[in-house]
Design a protein that fits this description.
Helix content: over 70%
CATH class: Mainly Alpha
Largest sheet: none
CATH architecture: Up-down Bundle
Strand content: under 5%
CATH superfamily: Amino acid/polyamine transporter I
Radius of gyration: 21 Å
Distance between the termini: 77 Å
Number of strands: 0
Order of helices and strands: HHHHHHHHHHHHHHHHHHHH
CATH topology: Amino acid/polyamine transporter I
Structural class: mainly alpha
């Protein structure tokens, strides 16, 4: 007769599953709040106060809906996003999708590395030293670690982004005042629309779709893990938007009040927005930790995603579970991207202008990215998981409105800018 299961065993099993499944959603969401996103949120608060804060809340369910579809596709098909597009629609369409990925990854990589260069300059470290240390360290890490090891490092570093939450709480702004100001939305203003497009592009990025689907496959998640993977994604969506809102509130409460509509031209100016609440030394340190967490985890994600995306379409091995000798093209592309980005950023780059422009570009690419995602969810998933019925129509409406608004805001904003 079998022994009765102890209560501790009953509780241990769900915890083991949670620890085994959690990761891809949190990593991609922490990467979502990258250097470019932090800069965009800071610029939004400095120029428009709290008028772009409501958008951060609206984007939480949209982000969760989009990334949940990538989780479904990964667990049900066991294939990456580019590979699945090639199989379902042909290699030409796959190259179009990977082309949008390449543009997004290149812009994001330059922004992340520039963010780290800016952090180094806060403490008097020359750009080339910061780039050499960062690029060298990330190359060694990826060449010698498994997916699980890289994920753990990304989560640990990305946790530093929570420093921005502490800053927002220290502002002691009245919620009623924040709410009233957030409802005054100047849709007629081209400058506002430009930053609105940047905020949309800062939250929903092509490389996020590719990365999370590939990470789910690399982690070998199956249908029975889907519920926990959805929770992982939903929690990540809330966390990333809390961080974006925190940065916006901090800059709105300082620069947005003392010098409205002042542009931010350097990382140092963004860091200075924190010092009234925390003191110069503490504010600078917390900003450095938050920006470093944002930039490093995103650098890992976007460079791996670019190498994976090309591998999925060209057919060579493209997983961290393969040794470098088994997947030389995958590791080679990853390394070349990092080195080239580091060399470019070692020169003088206007981080703020670059960061906001890259997010606007992401908004312009949304119709292609979300269009492919929707079609795959409709046609590449097995029956029980296929996007269908009223929810399919709801998702189509959400995607259409999001992509349409991003494109409209970007075009009108660029015309004015």
């Amino acid at each position: 007769m079998p022994l009765p299961r102890r209560r501790s065993d009953t509780w241990r099993k769900p915890w083991r599953m949670a620890l085994a499944v959690l990761g891809p959603g949190l990593v991609v969401m922490l990467a979502d709040t990258d250097a470019g996103s932090v800069i965009t949120a800071a610029q939004s608060g400095a120029q428009w106060g709290y008028k772009l804060l409501l958008l951060q809340a609206v984007l939480i369910p949209i982000l969760s809906i989009v990334q949940e579809l990538t989780v479904r596709l990964g667990v049900a098909t066991g294939k990456g996003h580019g590979e699945l597009i090639a199989k379902r629609f042909g290699r030409g369409w796959a190259w179009l999708s990977v082309g949008t990925l390449a543009l997004s990854c290149l812009g994001a990589l330059l922004t992340e590395l520039s963010g780290m260069a800016g952090v180094g300059l806060l403490f008097g470290v020359p750009r080339w030293i910061t780039m050499a240390a960062l690029v060298g360290g990330l190359i060694v890490m990826v060449w010698t670690a498994s997916y699980a090891g890289v994920e753990r490092v990304a989560l640990a570093v990305g946790a530093f982004e929570l420093a921005f939450l502490a800053v927002a709480l220290r502002t002691h702004q009245a919620l009623g005042s924040i709410w009233r100001h957030s409802l005054h939305i100047p849709f007629h203003d081209g400058g506002y629309l430009y930053l609105a497009a940047a905020n949309v592009g800062a939250v929903i990025m092509p490389w996020m779709v590719f990365y999370q689907q590939s990470a789910v496959v690399d982690k070998k998640l199956r249908i029975e893990h889907l519920k926990m993977a959805r929770i992982d994604t939903a929690v990540g969506a809330v966390v990333t938007q809390l961080i974006m809102a925190s940065v916006l509130i901090a800059t709105a409460a300082t620069i947005g009040q003392s010098n409205p509509n002042a542009p931010l031209d350097t990382v140092q100016q963004i860091a200075e927005a924190l010092t009234p609440f925390l003191g110069e030394r503490t504010g600078r340190l917390l900003f450095a930790l938050g920006m470093s967490g944002a930039a490093v985890v995103a650098t890992i994600v976007v460079s791996l995603t670019a190498a994976r995306g090309v591998g999925e379409v060209m057919g060579f091995k493209h997983s961290l579970e393969h040794h470098p000798r088994e997947a030389p093209w995958f590791y080679g592309i990853y390394t070349v991207l990092l080195v080239a980005g580091g060399v470019l950023v070692a020169s003088d780059v206007n981080l703020v202008s670059l960061g906001v422009a890259m997010e606007v570009m992401n908004a312009i690419l949304l119709p292609i990215v979300l269009g492919f995602l929707y079609l795959l969810a409709r046609h590449a998933l097995p029956g029980p998981l296929r996007l269908q019925g009223p929810y399919a129509r709801f998702v189509l409406a959400v995607i259409t409105i999001t992509a349409g608004f991003g494109l409209y805001a970007a075009i009108n904003g660029i015309a004015v800018a």
